Amino acid sequence: MILNQILFYFFALLAIGSAILMVTRRNIVHSAVFLISTLLATAGIFLQLQAEFLFVVQIILYVGGIMVLFIFVIMLVNLDVALRQIQFNRQKYVAGVLTLVLATQVFFALWVARAGLNLTNPADKMPVRNTEAIGDAIFQRYMLPFEIASVLLLVAMIGAVVMAKRRV
Amino acid sequence: MIPTEAYLILSLALFTIGVVGVLTRRNVIIVLMSIELILNAVNINLVAFSRHFGSVDGQVFAIFIITDAAAEAAVGLGIILAFFRNRETVLADEMDMLKW
Amino acid sequence: MGHLIPSSIAPYVLPVVYAVVIVAVLPLLAGYIVLLERKVMADMQARLGPMRVGPHGLLQPIADAVKLLLKEDIIPANADKLMFWMAPLVSVTMALLAYAALPIGPAFQIADLNVGLLFILGISSLGIYGIVLGGWASNSHYSLLGALRSAAQLVSYETAAGLGLVSALLLAGSLSMKEIVQAQYDQGTWFIFSVPVGFFIYMVGSIAETNRAPFDLPEAESELVAGYMTEYSGFRWSLYFLAEYANMIIVAGIATTLFLGGWLRPFARWHDHFPGTSLEFFDVIPSLVFLAAAGYCFYLAPKQPVQIQKIVIAAFGAACLLLAGAMAAALFASPAVMAGIHGAFWFMAKVVAYLYAFLWFRFTFPRYRFDQLMRLGWRFLIPLALVNVIDVGIAIILRQELGWSPFWAMLLMTLVTLGVAMWLASEGAKPASTLQPADTEI
């Protein structure tokens, strides 16, 4: 019980702190490392929400795949001169105000509806065998999105190879 | 048991930080990374509601979002590489050849 | 004892004890595996190996550790200090974290996750960051190129190894390591006999995953200096080294659990007894193995030239006798204790056999060039692994829906997969003019 809360606050603070650091670093590789730390904290949150398969999928795909791709590209386009230029563009104040308005709107929506949504009593009927339940769902109810996702990945793979190829 | 609201607030915070990153940074790679952060925030939201209602559909949706993010990151980084080879820059302000 | 531990922390005591044991024993074990490798290398090259430091070189790892701890800690100029400090840490942390889900015998597992196998695979894939960030943070061209090559190799072969594992998972039906071993007990065969092609793919993939020869281009001494480890010296280098050997034991543990029956003894379902007792035939094998080892030690002891070597070998013989006695005594204890101790013995025996195969391959095969390595991974192993998964699926359908016996279904599908493998290999061996030039820039 208390361990649950400690773990939640640990992962939440790690995620938010790493996210803020990621957005403000000057060095791109440091930003990438902080994004990796955010993604790992998110994986911890998934594990706490009893989504074990999603926990490992997040680690294998997001951290072990997508971020490796990011780090490769960062190392290929690394410009020393970029470290000394201005990092934030000219619209930063307007963007800040708009984002604050957006966040306030969503928070207000949650606050007003909190009694009706009954968000403090989560149901306790998650299926015990998480991987088997996800397998059942993907291959029975969500078969069409699964096939579309595979076509999407094929298209993305061909597109990425074509984009990154040197002109032979 | 942590209430679902806590996860929603966490998701909102990460989403906000991601939006700030997308709108404010000049370096296109950091913009892409902020987009990944936004997608992650949405994933936390979906999985929190999946546990709230006891069904696994939210997690399946989150898996598809991760798949989507992978595809988009691959193509986006390919575009950045191609652009970098031509113009030697990764700053969004300097990618202005289509402006009049 | 159970009354002294408050119930709120009682579930955490045993896993913490196991974790402390693993973290304490593993560096020593890794050091002695290095010594074992040098001795085996020497044996295969008809020489003796380290003999000076301690009798038969047994104190060599300790001497190496002391030397590494006392070396000067050099950080290259203009290196990114945070990343430079953090990279070996990431490697070692991920290598040790993977032990959390590895079962060494039925009673020794820190956490029986129901996605245990994927957890270990995921944590192993996080080890790539230690390599990539270390290479980049060293601010040196050789390090960066070696790191990028190594990361590309790891990512490619991780896919192939994972697909090789999937073919065994189709038979096991679960991702939990305990249930996989239980499935091998229920089906009566180790999965290496059901899906030998899957085992082969996983073995090749795991050799590339751990940067071992013949796939050790990123860290070989004659290539790119030492790859990503070039600028690391002293204790930081020893952390990378520890991470590599810990990774080797992890992949051996995964292969043992999935393909070699985990902690099951050979013929686990033959319960033939010695007449008159309840002692099963195959349960005396551990004691016999240790007795044979003790006998060999006592046979060698008088032949040593130096007094101290005689004493040490005789001490080894005595230790083997003690272990033989322990194995025999375990037969008369409760079934849980016996399963635990004998299970641990069989698991470690299989891991040692797999690691010996690793060492054997290192000194037998010449090194692959980087483009040959990538071609092998992407053009041979991954298509073969995909075809293997499909074929195992067809074999399962033949068995369940059409009622074929498991032996004939698996045999037929293995032959089909081998045919595809031969076709892929012959296509890769065509003269280079008919293949596209490699478009890699790394």
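Chain A touches chain B through 87 residues (CB under 8 Å).
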